[in-house]
Amino acid sequence: MSHFTKVKTEFKERDALITAIKNLKGWQVEVHETEQHLYGYRGDRRQQAAHLIVRREQINPASNDLGFHCNEDGIYNAIISEWDAANPLKGFIKELTKEYSVVCTENFARSRGMIVERTRHQDGRLQLRLSVPQQQVIRR
């Protein structure tokens, strides 16, 4: 039985976190107002509970659920099994943190009326181009 570990993160924006997960892996994320239990690789209900859950079947046949628990301060911490963190999800939190930052930047820019273009280069680099729409000046 794998042991679950809480990973301290700085995920504050629920919708940006969900989008980042979907962008990285294409996984469906369950959203719960009240905590729901996570399940282990054998389908056994675990003590750990989370508000955002990626069910194990989407990750790997031998995986446990992946959860994100919203603390009182509004920060979502990841709940991930030691086995998953070392195997199918190795490096996932690091990549998720990068993608989350990009999604937050895109959302902020769009909220300020900017146009956002995202380009992923063949070498893996990501480029964001933010621009302000040109306004037409009408002269009379």
Architecture overview:
This protein has one domain (4-131). The model has no long low-confidence stretch (mean pLDDT 91). Helix 1 (14-25) crosses helix 4 (92-111). The protein is an alpha+beta fold and 140 residues long. A five-stranded antiparallel beta sheet has the order 1-5-4-3-2. 29% of the residues lie in helices and 36% in strands.
Keywords:
alpha+beta, elongated, 140 residues, two-stranded antiparallel sheet
What's this, in brief?
With 140 residues, the protein is α+β, with helices and mostly antiparallel strands. The chain has helices at 14-25, 56-59, 82-86, 92-111, and strands spanning 4-11, 30-39, 45-54, 66-70, 76-81, 115-120, 126-131. Helix 1 packs across helix 4.
Main beta-sheet annotation = 5 strands, antiparallel
- Secondary-structure element pattern, one letter each: EHEEHEEHHEE
Structural class: alpha+beta
Overall body shape: elongated
> Could you tell me how far the N terminus lies from the C terminus, measured between alpha carbons in angstroms?
76 Å
Radius of gyration: 18 Å
Poorly predicted residue ranges: none
- How many strands appear in the DSSP assignment? 7
Mean pLDDT: 91
Question: Strands of the largest sheet, in order across it?
Answer: 1-5-4-3-2
Give the helix proportion (percent range): 25-40%
Count of DSSP-assigned helices: 4
Summed up, the domain count is: 1
* Beta-strand content estimate: 35-45%
